[in-house]
Amino acid sequence: MEKERESAAEDRAGGIQVIARTAKILNALGDTPDGMSLAEIAKAVDLPRSTVQRIVSALSQENIIQADRSDGVRLGPALLRLVARVHTDVVSIVTPYLEQLSREVDETVTLARINGRGLAFVHVVVAEHILRVMPPVGGDLPMHSTSGGRALLAMHSDSEVKALLGQHYKRLTDRTVHSITELLAIVEETRKRGYAWESDETVHGVSSLAFAIDTILGRYAVSIVLPTARAAEKRARVAECALRTKEALAAEIGRASNPIEPGDSPR
């Protein structure tokens, strides 16, 4: 009987270890949307390549990941379908807050997430102003020039920002930030004040203020988008309402652990 109990305990411990290792591999792949080799995964998760190969093979059979000789290993369709369902749930939870925020500031409010090196809109609440901004759902914009992108970048360390964006700093207007040094300074300022701001850097005549929420359901950016003609007089009010909504959403959905704090990011 004692041996049976010991055997059962060993089986449980082994199962927990496999789950933990699998989670590490999935997290590593989630941080590298372009794919990783087995050697890169093994180094990232500090596991033997043979162990990584066994887990990758099992996950691949379930379509949780995709393993391709040319593109490497990346997240698969089965997992992405689950992620899509989570995003749908997030939209249903967040929408009432976005609608309230839009009414308070009388401007368009968007919900977005990182998509590769871009910012993808997943929901938009359009203001009723005659002069208003209407970003397209599903449309991608650059991370470096948008307030939503900067708010999400502020949740990463500076080294992660560099790895995520590489040298992709296309100038969309004459005001667009176009150097990593300038961008990292903006990201650090975003961490300090709790929101990001941009004016005429993505589209002439359009400004935006955004905050990011780092929750148990993922990381999202909420942006208030408005014509630059109204931006200066409304910025303080918009920032106040945005930060209040940020706290309300964190309380509603829950906070993720280990956020990047101002000054914590290694350069």
TrEMBL record:
SMART domains, per database record: HTH_ICLR (SM00346)
Lineage: superkingdom: Bacteria
Keywords: DNA-binding, Transcription, Transcription regulation
HTH iclR-type domain mapped to chain residues: 16-77
MF terms (GO), sorted A to Z: DNA binding
Annotated InterPro entries: GAF-like_dom_sf, HTH_MetabolicPath_Reg, Tscrpt_reg_IclR_C, Tscrpt_reg_IclR_N, WH-like_DNA-bd_sf, WH_DNA-bd_sf
Keyword DNA-binding: yes
Domain named IclR-ED: residues: 71-259
Pfam families the record matches: HTH_IclR, IclR_C
GO BP: any one term: regulation of DNA-templated transcription
Keyword match DNA-binding: yes
Protein name per UniProt: IclR family transcriptional regulator
Species of origin: Burkholderia cenocepacia
Lineage, broadest ranks: Bacteria, Pseudomonadati, Pseudomonadota, Betaproteobacteria, Burkholderiales
